[in-house]
Amino acid sequence: MSNFKKILKNNFWLENPVIVQILGICSTLAVTNNLKNTLIMTIGVTLVTALSNFTISAMRNLIPRKVRMITQVLVISFYVIMVDIVLRAYVPDVSKALGPYVGLIITNCIIMGRAEAFAQGNKPLISFWDGFTAGLGYMFVLVVVAFFRELLGFGTILGFQVVPNSFPKWTVMVMPPSAFFVLASLIWIIRGMQIKKDVSQSSGGEKK
Amino acid sequence: MRFDRDSKFYTVTFTFIVSFVFLIVLSGLNAMTSQQVKKNQELFMVRAVLNAMGIPYENDEEAINVFKSKITVEMKDSYSLFSSEVDGETVYAILFNGSGLWGNISGVLAVDSNVSRIVGIDFISQSETPGLGGRIEESWFKEQFRNEAIVNDKIVVSTAKVSDSKDDGLVDAITGATLTSKSIEKIIATYIPVLKSLLGVN
């Protein structure tokens, strides 16, 4: 059981896919100027990562080495298309708002990364958990970035006006480049915290 | 005999079977939902026509009923022309198609009977950047067109701040989505002459 906890901690914080591994940056830049789209997109990524990890892990002993990557991409696109079809049939408004981004989940490096790094060598259940938590780590970062971009760019949170109308809107926050600034600041703050903790832990160890 | 996982035969068979199984599941799912998807698309069209004409409705079911009872559709020169009475005046609407920044933008454009003012505009499908060009779907953008006067057969979507006047033929563009905004301007400028010729107005 502690294994599950360790994976959660690693994927969510210590080895966060976006902050530490700098993966999935493309979608971090693209979809984060609007909190609602970000939430739906990240839920999609989390589900796809978890399920594709599970499937790849379940058939890992059958996959020939030569076509390993192709099979992974096949499984990933299978789930992404499934998400796309379900969205289109049952929540058409959301599917309309996300447009081409659902299809682009396939190219999210985090999914492929987890499949290759974890699911290929571990049992299905724990692989599912690994994919799920990696998705949560991704969601956490994107939601924070989207929160600040929507707040400063539009003055709204989830579409509700939260700052007075007289507040000057930061147009740059709506544009993709601002995600670089917000994300970089976030990486700076979180890495700063992590490194500080590392240093204090290792120096504490020496004293003993 | 144990499988030789690296043999050519196994690799090819494996790839074939796996692709086959996944494809079957996906096409099954697609076939199962295609009816629903088609219904959704029709509903989008119905809602867009009603929104553009400024006819209120409570929910999706009512939208379909209102559409059936109040709106007449006729084909003219391969365009489907919708017409209805709104507040005692005849309003015409047409389906439009045009290219945006990334792909096709389709929707409904409604005008009054002598094509002097836009009654409203609504979009059925678009694949503009979510959060930027995709904001053409937001009501503040669409409401700008409501009752806007048509000047020189077009509405200018201006990147500079414009006044609230409904007589100048000017509306605000979307910040950060100039190209999408300009595409809308172009589409409207293409369809106003079409509407004029369909309705016989000069």
TrEMBL record, chain B:
Pfam families: FMN_bind (PF04205). It comes from the Bacteria. The keyword Phosphoprotein applies. GO terms for biological process: sodium ion transport. One of its GO terms (cellular component) is membrane. The keyword Translocase applies. GO terms for molecular function: FMN binding; oxidoreductase activity, acting on NAD(P)H, quinone or similar compound as acceptor. InterPro entries: FMN-bd (IPR007329), NqrC (IPR010204). The chain crosses the membrane at residues 12-32. Keywords: Cell inner membrane, Cell membrane, Flavoprotein, FMN, Ion transport, Membrane, NAD, Phosphoprotein, Sodium, Sodium transport, Translocase, Transmembrane, Transmembrane helix, Transport, Ubiquinone. Residues 100-192 form the FMN-binding domain. This is Na+-transporting NADH:ubiquinone oxidoreductase, subunit NqrC. It comes from Fervidobacterium pennivorans (strain DSM 9078 / Ven5).
